[in-house]
């Protein structure tokens, strides 16, 4: 089937591939992927939880009206925004990107805007979708009240755009490539006896190797992503450039990112809940407070200062508007930055990587490419239209196989907080490690207890499931 360039003729046919590799979550996705509530759920607890933000004013290029989304007149957008119930996902990074050619056919990648509403029963429900950035007569705003396949196909285009945004920005750029920057600067500038080297080295395990393999097997000229995804090839570089320009220090620090996106109080947001607890538990504050007694010691550590300077210059292109520090002046600054480095390579990577097959194994929920343009008028879309829009059989198979591989734990997986190579010999640091491990055990137990009461458990930030480094 990996060589078949035919289109799917029926959704059930996809089971011929899907039945070979299933997880309990991927089976749940297959059953619920068409539902609006599950579509909205994925913006909070799927593999891309960093797109959604609270909407306080509609973008000028998204002219949704009250009559569109509240036809009964029982509410208004202004009122719902005031209450903090309206949310936006804007895929502007995809705007104007040259889509790929796959199997000799032009592919299509949209730059949608999605409006969502938190309902009284605490569900996140999509209420409007515009598939291109600029409003026009041939760019309708799709609504849940439209025909079944108009609305479903609009959501499919969003999910396909989310695949490219997730893979290139959220996953590759913001975890793999940043972890490589931190690791290379560490290996170049800090001697093995330096306490920060000892602290961070376990969080760099396999990172350079896995990134080498990603460049070779996924995003090279003959890589799977390049050959089969709608954003492969020329479009990939456009998206990566735009993604780098959007990276800020605040967006890499989960407490500030959650606050900036206005998501502090949204219910059922388990990525936020577990991520914040992990951020607070991280070991850096214990170690660094022990080795640096005051701010002057930080300022005088020339090796430490060279480490952060190279990160600023080579990782963030010396752009001060990113907020990335050029040097450290206080212990608190150092602790915050090192916490971000460890979080990025462990928890954040786990959150955006480990569930890839769970949510993308059932291809219609996350198509890696689409091969028809979106409808320009309503009322014309059928099931046949949807099937002809979905990727060909071979593209589906290649995508599923890749997501399966990337979602697997390695045979020598090292969970967060475990340090097989004992770099610290002093009694105090060893005591700190044990304290950190105890905190992680408590958090793991709390997450497991919560998940027992959830229809869809959120397991990706359970410390026993989080790898110490970007290693897959």
UniProtKB/TrEMBL annotation:
GO terms for molecular function: iron ion binding; oxidoreductase activity, acting on single donors with incorporation of molecular oxygen, incorporation of two atoms of oxygen. Residues 1-472 form the Lipoxygenase domain. Pfam families: Lipoxygenase (PF00305). Fe cation binds at residues 171, 176, 349, 472. Binds 1 Fe cation per subunit. Signal peptide: none annotated. Its cofactor is Fe cation. InterPro entries: LipOase, LipOase_C, LipOase_C_sf, LipOase_CS, LipOase_Fe_BS, LipOase_mml. One of its GO terms (biological process) is lipid oxidation. Keywords: Dioxygenase, Iron, Metal-binding, Oxidoreductase. GO terms for cellular component: cytoplasm. Belongs to the lipoxygenase family. This is Arachidonate epidermal lipoxygenase 3. It comes from Nothobranchius furzeri (Turquoise killifish). The lineage of its organism: Eukaryota, Metazoa, Chordata, Craniata, Vertebrata. The gene is ALOXE3.
